[in-house]
Amino acid sequence: MEEEKSYGGSSSGSNLETSKAERSVWLMKCPVAVAKSWQNHPPSQPLSKVVFSIDPLLPEHDPAHLQFTMEMSGTESLNMPKTYSLNMFKDFVPMCIFSETNEGDKVALEGKVEHKFDMKPRHENIEDYGKLCRERTKKSQIKNRQVQVITDDGGAHMRPMPGMIGLVSSNFKDKKKTQPVKQTDTKRTRRDRGELEDIMFKLFEKQPNWALKQLVQETDQPAQFLKEILNELCIYNKRGANQGTYELKPEYKKSVEDTGAE
What we know:
The protein is of the alpha+beta class. Helices cover about 30% and strands about 20% of the residues.
């Protein structure tokens, strides 16, 4: 949308056309549905009509003093609003509009942005606009994937293509079958923290050093949960004869020894 005021000179012999450098233009942010409608609009017909009204009873600094309304010339969707409010902003960063030919060999300065607008549906059209948004959401959720049933063709579709033979080991299936199924932590139920601590102390009475894997098997607890308890009660041996095992901290060792003596 643009409002012509005056024309500047042109720069001959240059790739930048500046004959419209001083022209006043409007910059408008519009909804996605409106932009798509304009892209499919016949170029010979007007896109829309802007109507502005002035309320003489209001002061000029009042935002309601000057109001802009856009009326669409035609819409494809039945739920698409026909009229929109244009909220004008004068306080924005100075900007200029440039255009470029399809060949990219010429750039033109189309003018300076004088007014900036946000395009929004009017109050009486909010319900129709809501229906339009719901239609767009439903369309985006439709999956285009299709399931095709293959008739019995003797397994032709399952045969390896030329050049694929030898890429897969013949004993791959056997190896896959022999792999043990690992028990995941999601199948383990956490015990009460105090109850688990008592079990840990009893285990450390039997032997002073335990590996994490051994404790998981003994307590049937998630490894991450066990680590939290072990970090509070034990010391992890990073080197030495007991490398990779946990042992009780000195203060807990003494209490366990006292309990054993009793």
